[in-house]
Design brief:
283 residues; alpha/beta; eight-stranded mixed barrel; binds ligand C2E; binds magnesium ion
Length: 283
């Protein structure tokens, strides 16, 4: 009597998996269509200097607006794009959009830095890096006007990662380790990679006001970054209390809703000019 039951369970499970696989396939073809129809765009979340509130640049975050007006976030479509071999076309789009949105602006504001997220496949295949270098040369962007973010989880192939980071360094593109603390890289591992910047993951920042133990972990991360000579950016700062804690412990940069959500290019550019005037007036 057990057998038919487990057969039934197996059948349901198989159907479920088939359903999920089909959904992935259909989302992949929608992504392909979205690429053709230019449905992808970038928002820019300001990165600010904690001591002064000055905007130092932004992180470019990918968005997908479907024809029906629905906006889809990268946590949903990036994994599908990764699994269906579409990610390098998405990354190519990201570079093209940054070029279109920002090239002129970066020329006028040489001190501003735009950070772009790489995906795991962008490390495996060097087309994305080459496209980025071409874009930089075409627009004569200076050193430190673009940064690349890699998460710890992407470092599973350390040789490839090191090779890519070497190329980025040669082109004066700083590299940040993103979402730090959520992966599993060890200190020695981090030390052996030529990172310039460390981004403390939002999960740790979120715990600052509420959990003494996690706050201590944040302090260790800050100390470690200092020992390795890395710039630190705290992600997801939402409260003044968190900002104060980070400032007091020597974190220089932050991004988060306390300062600004991610903005459409026009709004980011307008906001950037506005705060620039404000800081110039104050001086
Ligand atoms: P991430 O690089 O860690 O990006 C930060 C995420 O935190 C963004 O989510 C941002 O909107 C969100 N965030 C910023 N400030 C706050 C805050 O104060 N509170 C809260 N609750 N959230 C905040 P988003 O835009 O949904 O991006 C999610 C992830 O998708 C990114 O994480 C990044 O890993 C990936 N991603 C985004 N754009 C791209 C891209 O162009 N290419 C690739 N490969 N991945 C991307
Ligand atoms: Mg990032
Ligand atoms: Mg991050
Ligand atoms: Mg994060």
């Amino acid at each position: 009597r057990l057998l038919p039951f487990s057969l039934l369970a197996a059948l349901i499970l198989t159907l479920g998996l088939l359903y999920l696989a089909r959904q992935q396939v259909s989302m992949a073809s929608q992504i392909r269509q979205g690429l053709r129809r230019n449905e992808f765009y970038l928002e820019y979340q300001p990165v600010i200097e904690l001591a002064t509130g000055r905007w130092t640049g932004a992180e470019a975050l990918l968005r997908w607006r479907r024809r029906n007006g629905e906006v889809i976030y990268p946590d949903v479509f990036i994994p599908v794009a990764e699994n269906s071999g579409l990610i390098s076309r998405l990354s190519e789009q990201v570079i093209a959009i940054i070029e279109k949105d920002m090239a002129q602006f970066l020329g006028d504001h040489p001190l501003m830095m735009i950070a772009m997220n790489f995906s795991a496949s962008d490390i495996q295949v060097d087309t994305t890096a080459r496209r980025l270098f071409d874009m930089i040369e075409r627009n004569k962007l200076g050193s430190g006007q673009l940064m690349v973010e890699l998460t710890e989880r992407m470092l599973v192939d350390p040789d490839k990662a090191r090779q890519l980071m070497g190329q980025l360094n040669d082109h004066n593109i700083p590299v940040a380790v993103d979402d730090f603390g959520t992966g599993y890289s060890s200190l020695s591992y981090l030390e052996s990679m030529p990172f310039d910047c460390l981004k403390i993951d939002r999960l740790f920042v979120e715990a600052i006001d509420r959990q003494a133990a996690t706050s201590r972990v944040v302090l260790h991360i800050i100390e470690m970054a200092a020992a390795l000579g890395l710039n630190v950016v705290a992600e997801g700062v939402e409260t003044e209390g968190q900002a104060q804690f980070l400032r007091e412990h020597g974190v220089r940069y932050a991004q988060g809703w306390l300062y600004s959500k991610s903005l459409r290019a026009e709004d980011f550019i307008a906001g950037y000019s506005q705060q620039l005037n404000y800081h110039q007036l104050k001086q």
